[in-house]
Design brief:
The complex is a heterodimer of chains A (764) and B (117).
Chain A lengths: L5 H7 L9 H13 L7 E5 L6 H13 L9 E8 L7 H19 L10 H9 L5 H15 L2 H14 L5 E8 L14 H12 L4 E5 L2 H10 L6 E5 L5 H15 L5 H10 L4 H14 L6 H13 L2 H13 L3 H16 L7 H8 L3 H13 L3 E4 L2 E4 L3 H14 L5 H37 L5 E3 L5 H8 L4 H10 L3 E3 L2 E7 L14 E6 L9 E9 L3 E2 L1 H18 L6 E7 L2 E2 L1 H9 L3 E4 H10 L4 H9 L11 E8 L5 H14 L4 H21 L6 E9 L2 E8 L11 H6 L2 H9 L2 E7 L2 E9 L16
Parallel strand pairs in A: 1-4, 1-5, 2-3, 3-4, 12-14, 13-15, 14-16
Antiparallel strand pairs in A: 6-7, 8-9, 10-11, 11-12, 17-18, 18-19, 19-21, 20-21
Chain B lengths: L6 E5 L2 E5 L2 E3 L1 H16 L4 E5 L3 E4 L1 H16 L3 E5 L3 H9 L7 E3 L2 H10 L2
Parallel strand pairs in B: 2-4, 3-5, 4-6, 6-7
Antiparallel strand pairs in B: 1-2
Helix pairs in contact in B: 1-2
Classes of the chains: A alpha/beta (764), B alpha/beta (117).
C-alpha cells in the first residue's frame, strides 16, 4: 500500500544518485522561492518518458526542504503529488489527494508520520499547529463522497492547499504525471485545470507541472486560456559531465568498473539518460561481465536491448501503452520506421498513411503515442522522440516480431551495424546538413536574381575551372545572364520511398510563386535532390527525371512550372552532364553552392549551429505564447490587433513596433478572411513573445490561394496586404498545406531600424 | 441604415473630413461618398484629417487612393494632416504620399490651401 503513495516516490528518491540539471534546478527553485513574496509563476516541465522529470521534481522538493536555517517565514512547503493512472476515479483521486496533502504537511511540520492513513487524526494533529481549515474540508468532502459527486469532491480536495498555511508556510505545487488529469472517469477533460485556474491566474502560488505528454496538457491549457501563464521547460539528457559523475557513483556502489573512454561512449550511446545508465550498470553487475573495450560494450548493450534490462523496460512500456496486441504491433512497426529508420515525417496525414490503418485506428495509435510522450504534436507538426535506445529496441522488436529472427541474430546485427555504421555516420549527417542549408537558402530566395551559371555546372566549369575564388566571385558579378528566383512559400523535406507512390520522392520540394503574385498560373514547384555519391551517374539523373515527370503529371504542371535541381559533390559522368542538359535540369556543384551561400549572406558554419539548435533562446527565458481564435466576421481583425497590443505591452515594446505589428496582423487577418474558403469560418492566431522577437502566426483553415474567392473588395485590395506585411515586419513566411494557409510574421525586437527618422513624428 | 458617419466641416472653401477610428472598407466608402458629394457640389479643396484614425487597413488605403485619383481628375487640391507615424509610413509604403501634401497640423494645411487659392 505504501508504495503507491506519492510519499513512497519521495522516500525512494536518493539525492546522492542525482546528478546534473543545475540550470533547470536553479531556475525552478528561483520560481519556488519567489512564492514567499506572493509571486508565483507556473512552469510546465516536459520531455520524453523517464528522462528524469520526476527526479527533478523530487530533487527540488528535497532542496526546498533543506533551505538554510534562518530564512524568514513563511517557508516554502513543497507538495509533491503524482496523478497516476490508478487514480482515474475522481472520488479516489480526491480522497488520496487530501490524505497525501495532510500527510505531507505533517511531515513538513516535523511530525513523525502516522502509521495509519487516518485523515481525521491527521487533521487533529494539524490543529495543534493552529491549522484548522482542514476540518471543514473533510466534512464537506465526506458529504460529497456519500453523494457520489466526484467533481465536487475534487474541487473540495484540490482547494484545501490553497487556503492553509499562511504565516507558517506557503505551498509550492509539484504536480507530476499531469497528463493523467485529462483522463479522469466521468470528468470532462481539463476539469482539473478549471479548478486550479483561479489559483494559477492569481499568480500567488508557485506551480510546477510535469508530464511526458505535453500535447495533451498544453491543449487543455490552451482551452482554459492558461497557456500564456506557463513557462515551458524541456528536459532532455544530461550533460556529459553529469553522466560521467553518475557512472562513477553507479559503478562505485556496485564495485564494478569500465574504462573512462568507454564510459563516455556508453553515455552517448544511451543518450545521456540517467535511467538507462542505471539499467546498464545493473546489467554489468548482474551478468558479471568485464567491459574493457568498445566491442565488449556494444555486445553488452546489444544483449541488454535484446533480452536484458533495456529490453524489459521498453517491452513493458509498450505492453502498457498498447494492451491490444495487433495495435501494439502496428505502433511498433510504425515507430520503427520513424525513430529507427529516420523516416522524415512531420504531418498527421503522412503518419496515417505510413500506419496504413483506417484514420480512426491510426488516430488512436497516434494519440496513445502522444499520451505516452513518444511524439509531440504542435500546430499540426509531429515531432518524435529522438532516443537511441528506443531506436534499437524498435529494431529488435521489428526484426523479432515481423521478420521472425532470434534475439541473438538481432543482437549480432546490432553490434555489427553499430560498428560499421560508426564510420558512415558523419557522411550521413553531412548530407542532412546540406539539405537543411539548401532548405534555408530557398526560404530566402524571395524573387532575387542570381547568375544563371550557378545552376549550370557544365558552363560554370568551362568558364571557371581551375580559377581562384576571387576571380570566380568577380566573374559572377559581371555575369549578365540572370535567373529570377521565385518567392518560396514553403519548403518541405521529402523522403525517398523505396516502394509506393511518387508523392514526396525528393529530398526537398519547394512551392513558390513568380513575381510574388499568389495565383495558380504563377505557381512554381522546385524539386530538389541532394546527392553525396562520389560520381553523379546518368542513371541517377534518369531516375530523378522520371520522378519529376510523375510529379508534374500528378500536379498537372506545365514545363516552366516545375524546376528540377540536382545538388552534388564529387565528379560527374559526361553522360550524366549530357542528360542534365537535355532534360533541362539545373545542376549545381558543392563549390557553386558556396557561392550561393555567399550571395545570400549565409555562412555554412553559422548555419550549422542554427539548424542543430532550433530554439535560439538563452536558458531560462522561455517564450510566452498567446492564442486567439477569430470568427470570420467583418472587423474582428480589430480584436486581433487589440490582443497584439496587449501582448506587446507585456514586453513593454515601443509604440512604433507595436503599431507595425498591429497593422501587419490586421492585414494578415483580412487576407485570411478573403482568401480562405473555410467552412469553419475561423482564423487561428498565435502570438509568441520572446526577448528578441515577436512571432505571429495567422492560420486559416481554408484551401489557401487555390480556393480564393475574388469578391469586390479583394479586387480592390489586390496585392496590397502582403506588400504591406512585408514592409511592416522583418520576416514573412507563407505556408500552404492541405489544412489551410499559415502566415508567419516575425518582428525582431531590440535596437531596430525603426528608431531612425524619429523627427518626422506627427502629433500623437 | 448607415450607422457610420464621418465628421466633416467647411473651413472657408476647404472641405475637411475627419477620419475617426478604423479606416476600413466601410469607413473608406463613407469618406469616398462625402468627398464625391463635395466635389459634385463644386468643392475643389479637400483636407483629410487623420488625427482620430486609430487603425488603417489596406482596403481603406485602396479607397483613399480612389479618392486621391478622383480629386486629381477634377484638378482639385488635396492634403492630409495629423498623421501618426505609422499611418504616415503606410501612405509612404503604398506610394500615396507622393501625390498628396502631408502636414503635421490642420492649421498648416489650411494655410497651404489659402496660399494656393
Amino acid at each position: 500500500m505504501r508504495l503507491i503513495w506519492n510519499q513512497g516516490a519521495g522516500l525512494s528518491f536518493r539525492p546522492e544518485e542525482f546528478f546534473g540539471r543545475e540550470e533547470e534546478l536553479a531556475s525552478l527553485s528561483r520560481v519556488c522561492l519567489e512564492g514567499r513574496s506572493g509571486i508565483g509563476a507556473s512552469v510546465m516541465i516536459f520531455g520524453p518518458p523517464n528522462v528524469g522529470k520526476t527526479s527533478i521534481l523530487l530533487k527540488l522538493k528535497h532542496d526546498l526542504q533543506r533551505l538554510p536555517e534562518g530564512s524568514p517565514p513563511p517557508r516554502p512547503f513543497p507538495f509533491y503529488f503524482s496523478f497516476s493512472k490508478i487514480l482515474s476515479h475522481p472520488l479516489a483521486l480526491s480522497q488520496h489527494f487530501l490524505q497525501e496533502y495532510l500527510w505531507q504537511v505533517l511531515a513538513f511540520l516535523g511530525e513523525s508520520p502516522l502509521g495509519a492513513f487516518d485523515a481525521e487524526a491527521m487533521c487533529e494533529r494539524l490543529g495543534t499547529f493552529g491549522l484548522t481549515e482542514c476540518r471543514e474540508f473533510l466534512i464537506a468532502h465526506r458529504m460529497w463522497t456519500e453523494r457520489g459527486d466526484g467533481l465536487s469532491a475534487l474541487v473540495n480536495a484540490l482547494s484545501l492547499p490553497f487556503v492553509s498555511g499562511r504565516e507558517i508556510f506557503y505551498p509550492v505545487f509539484l504536480f507530476d504525471d499531469f497528463q493523467y488529469t485529462c483522463k479522469l472517469q466521468n470528468i470532462p477533460d481539463g476539469a482539473i485545470l478549471s479548478i486550479l485556474r483561479p489559483h494559477i491566474k492569481s499568480g500567488h502560488f508557485p506551480m510546477i507541472i510535469s508530464g511526458s505528454s505535453p500535447g495533451h496538457v498544453t491543449a487543455s491549457l490552451k482551452r482554459e486560456g492558461l497557456y500564456g501563464s506557463f513557462q515551458m521547460m524541456e528536459v532532455g539528457g544530461l550533460f556529459p559531465g553529469a553522466s560521467a559523475k553518475m557512472w562513477a557513483s553507479l559503478f562505485e556502489r556496485r564495485q564494478i568498473g569500465m574504462p573512462p573512454h568507454i564510459q563516455a561512449r556508453a553515455a552517448a550511446r544511451l543518450g545521456h539518460v540517467p535511467i538507462y545508465q542505471r539499467m546498464l550498470a545493473e546489467e554489468v553487475s548482474f551478468r558479471n561481465v568485464q567491459v574493457t573495450d568498445e566491442i565488449g560494450f556494444e555486445n553488452l548493450f546489444a544483449l541488454s536491448i535484446t533480452e536484458g534490462q533495456l529490453n524489459r523496460y521498453w517491452r513493458e512500456f509498450f505492453e502498457n501503452a498498447f494492451p491490444d496486441r495487433l495495435q501494439r504491433a502496428r505502433a511498433i512497426k510504425f515507430l520503427k520506421r520513424v525513430v529507427c529508420d529516420q523516416f522524415p515525417l512531420d504531418t498527421v496525414e503522412g503518419a496515417l498513411s505510413l500506419l496504413g490503418t483506417s484514420p480512426a485506428e491510426g488516430g488512436e495509435i497516434l494519440s496513445s503515442l502522444e499520451f505516452k510522450g513518444l511524439l509531440k504534436s504542435d500546430f499540426e507538426q509531429l515531432r518524435f522522440v529522438n532516443d537511441p535506445v528506443l531506436a534499437d529496441f524498435l529494431y529488435w522488436a521489428f526484426e523479432r516480431g515481423v521478420l521472425g529472427k532470434t534475439s541473438s541474430q538481432v543482437a549480432a546485427s546490432l553490434v555489427q551495424a553499430k560498428l560499421s555504421r560508426a564510420a558512415l555516420d558523419p557522411v550521413e549527417g553531412e548530407r542532412e546538413k546540406w539539405i537543411a542549408v539548401t532548405k534555408e537558402l530557398m526560404r530566402r530566395w524571395d524573387c532575387r536574381e542570381v547568375p544563371t551559371l550557378l545552376f549550370r555546372f557544365g558552363g560554370f566549369r568551362e568558364r571557371f575551372g581551375g580559377k581562384g575564388l576571387l576571380e570566380v566571385v568577380i566573374g559572377m558579378e559581371k555575369e549578365a545572364q540572370k535567373l529570377r528566383l521565385p518567392k518560396i512559400s514553403s519548403v518541405s523535406t521529402g523522403y525517398k520511398t523505396r516502394r509506393g507512390g511518387p508523392r514526396f520522392d525528393f529530398d526537398l520540394v519547394a512551392y513558390g510563386f513568380h513575381d510574388a503574385e499568389f495565383s495558380e498560373e504563377n505557381l512554381v514547384i522546385w524539386a530538389v535532390d541532394v546527392t553525396t555519391e562520389k560520381t553523379l551517374t546518368a542513371r541517377s539523373v534518369e531516375h530523378f527525371e522520371n520522378r519529376c515527370r510523375l510529379l508534374s503529371l500528378e500536379k498537372g504542371l506545365k514545363d516552366e512550372q516545375l524546376r528540377k535541381w540536382i545538388l552534388f559533390e564529387g565528379a560527374v559522368d559526361p553522360a550524366a552532364l549530357e542528360q542534365v542538359a537535355r532534360y533541362d535540369i539545373f545542376l549545381t556543384h558543392r563549390s557553386q553552392m558556396r557561392l550561393f551561400l555567399n550571395l545570400f549572406g549565409m555562412e555554412e558554419l553559422d548555419l550549422e549551429a542554427d539548424v542543430r539548435k532550433p530554439a535560439e533562446m538563452p536558458p531560462g527565458t522561455e517564450p510566452l505564447e498567446f492564442e486567439l481564435v477569430l470568427p470570420m466576421k467583418a472587423d474582428t481583425e480589430v480584436v486581433a490587433a487589440r490582443v497584439a497590443e496587449e501582448v506587446a505591452a507585456y514586453a513593454s515594446l515601443d509604440k512604433d513596433t507595436v503599431d507595425r505589428v498591429k497593422m501587419a496582423i490586421i492585414e494578415a487577418c483580412i487576407n485570411a478572411f478573403e482568401h480562405s474558403g473555410a467552412e469553419s469560418g475561423k482564423v487561428r492566431l498565435r502570438y509568441i513573445l520572446s526577448p528578441e522577437k515577436i512571432e505571429l502566426f495567422v492560420q486559416d483553415e481554408g484551401k489557401g490561394f487555390r480556393g480564393g474567392r475574388a469578391g469586390e473588395e479583394s479586387k480592390r485590395n489586390r496585392g496590397w496586404g502582403l506588400k504591406l506585411i512585408r514592409e511592416l515586419v522583418d520576416d514573412v513566411e507563407i505556408m500552404t498545406g492541405d489544412k489551410g494557409t499559415t502566415v508567419r510574421m516575425v518582428k525582431y525586437l531590440g535596437s531596430g531600424s525603426e528608431k531612425e527618422g524619429a523627427g518626422s513624428q506627427g502629433p500623437e | 441604415m448607415n450607422y457610420l458617419t464621418v465628421r466633416t466641416r467647411y473651413a472657408g472653401d476647404v472641405f475637411v473630413v475627419y477620419i475617426d477610428g478604423y479606416l476600413n472598407s466601410l469607413m473608406g466608402e463613407e469618406v469616398e461618398r462625402v468627398v464625391q458629394e463635395a466635389l459634385d457640389g463644386g468643392g475643389r479643396k479637400v483636407l483629410l484629417n487623420f488625427e482620430g484614425t486609430r487603425l488603417i487597413n489596406s482596403i481603406g488605403i485602396s479607397i483613399i487612393i480612389g479618392v486621391v485619383e478622383k480629386i486629381m481628375e477634377r484638378s482639385g487640391l488635396l492634403a492630409f494632416c495629423c498623421l501618426s507615424r505609422i499611418n504616415r509610413e503606410l501612405f509612404q509604403m503604398t506610394g500615396v504620399a507622393r501625390y498628396v501634401r502631408v502636414f503635421d497640423l490642420e492649421e498648416e494645411a489650411l494655410g497651404h490651401f489659402s496660399q494656393s487659392a
